[in-house]
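Q: Hand in one record:
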Amino acid sequence: MSESAPYLQLQNVHKHFGKTVALDDISLDVQPGEFLFLLGPSGCGKTTLLRIIAGLEDLNSGRIIQAGRDVTRLPASRRDFGIVFQSYALFPNLTVADNIAYGLKNQKLPKAQVAARVQELLSLVGLQGLDRRYPAQLSGGQQQRVALARALALSPGLLLLDEPLSALDARVRANLRGEITALQRRVGVTAIMVTHDQEEALTMADRIVVMDQGRIVQIGAPLEIYQQPATPFVADFVGQMNFLPGVVSGEGVGVIRSGAFALRVQEWHNHLPPGSPVMLAVRPEEIRVEREHAGMSNVLLTEVRAVEFMGPHYRLLLRYERAGAEEPVHLTINLPRHATAHHDLQVGAPMPVHVPADTLRVFRTPGAGK
């Protein structure tokens, strides 16, 4: 990714619909050639932000700078972008070739040049020989490729994608992820994609912008977002996460007590006094099932509550009690199929698990330390 000046800059963007705040002080730089994802739950403001970038929605305040040009108040027709919608938005009465050529023809380009560009784009998206078909004669995945080709026809500086894969079945969606990523890399276009699908973002993005309630919660590379979530919301939304309530112990620096169990964390920066409530977070694949645990630290003695076969692994639903708490603590872990012969997976069976110190994230409970 380039270290040059940002291709796109959003500066203090605000948007409200009546009394409802849709975007609250959004500032963001997008680098040239970057594939950036806007990720968040429904209603978080990600599609509104994409529409504002495109000029399809007005902002209330803030600035948008694209390639050094202030486009804040420019209509969509005067901005340099191509867009792909969730619904494809193809013209049903036009052939594949005519759909792709639509923008080119509006530019009054010579017919031969238009025809050559259409064939180039058909080859680029793997639809050679389908130029005379109509959208109704194509599969969903093929229609989405036509929409991509049409969006790229005028060689835009910015490609915007609004949940383009959500209407497709799982297998086609997985295949198109790789195709879109490879296409974006090959063309070199700066791209922004909206999605609520964490798997899409983790597998395709250069960087992910996690949004919630109209605000940016965290920005980072996929690995950073997954391994170092900034808040419990990010931890819970991106991937699966176990949360273990606890309190800071006086037994040593970085020791958290959850029920009867003492858990040491590797990094400790909060400096909270003993007794402060915290929340520990650990991913299912990071917890290890142990047969011999005598003398080990960070061991939880849990009970099996359910077993789910997932193909390559079993998902175990475990729990342990906390003295004085009305509800037990529930854990989900993934146990590789080849390891199941060594453990009793019957409901009600005891299940000692090891939680490595370097896998535990610590989140301050609101009000702690005040």
Observations:
- The CA atoms of residues 263 and 298 lie 5 Å apart.
- The mean pLDDT is 92.
